């Protein structure tokens, strides 16, 4: 980080900043310009937030960050791509992984029918919400443990690993018992106590990007999981809030490409939540793959018009089969063997 001193800064003010930088665990490198002094805080183990607070010190004009605040998720720390093993499916290993299933698990038959169809079309994992974060408290909230049991049955029959959302700390244990990968929903991306708890769970985590989170905030949320001991983290871009209202969210594919540069973690794209529109799922799936996404998570329902949540952004079963053909994933492919 760089501390730019004001032109009017006194020698005492400059010395004070140098002292504080050292106290915070950094080396201080002073560049004496003709008009002003710039002091670099160099090192990787110092206390960054205290350097940021030097903005308030006398004689300081500004504090500029020149390196990223995240460490463990950074590609600077680990150059090789992380491959996350989810029940035998490798995410980040080069194959485009497709996770498919209903937004919500609504019934035994709805889930089993979907699971069989997405498996036959070549999906690698099954998704389905048991605990649903709904904008309105009057909307369907999910079947809870009953849905987890249906997911378990569908997984046993099809061999597909299960991805399902955990909304609260209280549900972590029960969801971890059934899920192969626990999803942190967009609304919970900065629920730091939930993240801390999930860091101790011996299962992979799918961390969705918050609707109004910057890439830095998203990666810092992932940093909580790695810093707490869980290195098996998969990121998911699911669209952000912008001024555009023609789509439900704006699927930020630049962020997918950027995060692949900044981090070694695998990144998925969610074209269902990212657009809100069924007709855009196929084009945005292809665009996400072209941008470097390691996989997709797509909502699929046997009868989207009857879905209890997110029907308009769900493919029907033939629609999913067509998508898989268009993606070149035409047959049941056992990624476990890859
Ligand atoms: C979901 O996957 O159904 C979901 C609620 O996603 P998000 O948290 O991205 O809105
Ligand atoms: Mn949904």
Cross-sheet strand order for the largest sheet: 7-8-9-10-11-12-13-14
The number of strands is 14
Largest sheet: 8 strands, parallel, barrel
Low-confidence stretches: 331-338
- The percentage of residues in β strands lies in 15-25%
The quaternary organization reads as single chain
How would you describe the shape? elongated
The helicity comes to: 25-40%
Tell me briefly what this model is.
This protein is of the alpha/beta class and 338 residues long. It has helices at 11-23, 48-52, 108-121, 145-158, 172-178, 192-198, 215-227, 253-262, 271-275, 281-291, 317-326; strands at residues 2-5, 27-32, 37-42, 60-64, 84-86, 89-91, 97-101, 125-127, 162-165, 181-184, 205-208, 233-237, 267-269, 295-299.
Q: Can you tag this structure with a few keywords?
A:
alpha/beta; 338 residues; 14 strands; disordered C terminus; binds phosphoenolpyruvate; 4-stranded antiparallel sheet; single chain; binds manganese (II) ion; 11 helices; 8-stranded parallel barrel
Describe this structure in words.
By secondary structure, this protein is an alpha/beta fold. It is built from eleven helices and 14 strands. The strands form three sheets. Strands 7-8-9-10-11-12-13-14 form an eight-stranded parallel β-barrel, surrounded by six helices. It has a four-stranded antiparallel sheet with strand order 2-3-1-4, covered by helices on one side. The chain is elongated. The two termini are 43 Å apart. The model is unreliable at 331-338 (pLDDT under 50).
């Amino acid at each position: 980080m760089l501390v730019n001193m004001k032109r009017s800064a006194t020698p005492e003010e400059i010395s004070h900043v140098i002292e504080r930088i050292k106290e915070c665990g950094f080396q201080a490198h002073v560049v004496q310009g003709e008009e002003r002094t710039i002091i670099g805080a160099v090192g990787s183990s110092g206390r960054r937030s205290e350097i940021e607070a030097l903005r308030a010190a006398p004689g300081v004009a500004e504090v500029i960050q020149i390196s990223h605040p995240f460490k463990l998720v950074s590609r600077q720390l680990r150059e090789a791509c992380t491959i996350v093993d989810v029940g035998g499916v490798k995410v980040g290993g080069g194959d485009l992984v497709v996770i498919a299933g209903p937004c919500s698990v609504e019934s035994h038959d709805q889930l089993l029918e979907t699971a069989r169809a997405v498996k036959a079309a070549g999906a690698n994992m099954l998704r389905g919400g048991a605990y649903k974060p709904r904008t309105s408290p009057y909307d369907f909230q999910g079947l809870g443990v009953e849905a987890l049991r249906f997911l378990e049955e569908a997984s046993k029959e099809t061999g597909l690993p299960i991805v399902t959302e955990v909304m609260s700390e209280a549900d972590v244990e029960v969801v971890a018992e059934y899920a192969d990968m626990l999803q942190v929903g967009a609304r919970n991306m900065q629920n730091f106590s939930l993240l801390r708890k999930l860091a101790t769970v011996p299962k992979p985590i799918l961390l969705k990007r918050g609707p109004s989170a910057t890439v830095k905030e998203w990666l810092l949320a992932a940093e909580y999981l790695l810093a707490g001991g869980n290195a098996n983290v998969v990121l998911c871009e699911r669209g952000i809030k912008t001024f555009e209202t023609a789509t439900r969210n704006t699927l930020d594919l630049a962020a997918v490409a950027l995060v692949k540069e900044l981090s070694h973690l695998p990144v998925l794209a969610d074209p269902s939540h990212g657009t809100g529109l069924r007709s855009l799922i196929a084009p945005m799936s292809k665009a996400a793959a072209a941008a470097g996404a390691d996989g997709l998570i797509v909502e699929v329902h046997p009868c989207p018009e009857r879905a209890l949540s997110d029907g308009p952004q769900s493919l029907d079963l033939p629609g999913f089969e067509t998508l898989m053909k268009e993606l070149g994933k035409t047959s049941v492919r056992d990624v476990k063997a890859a």
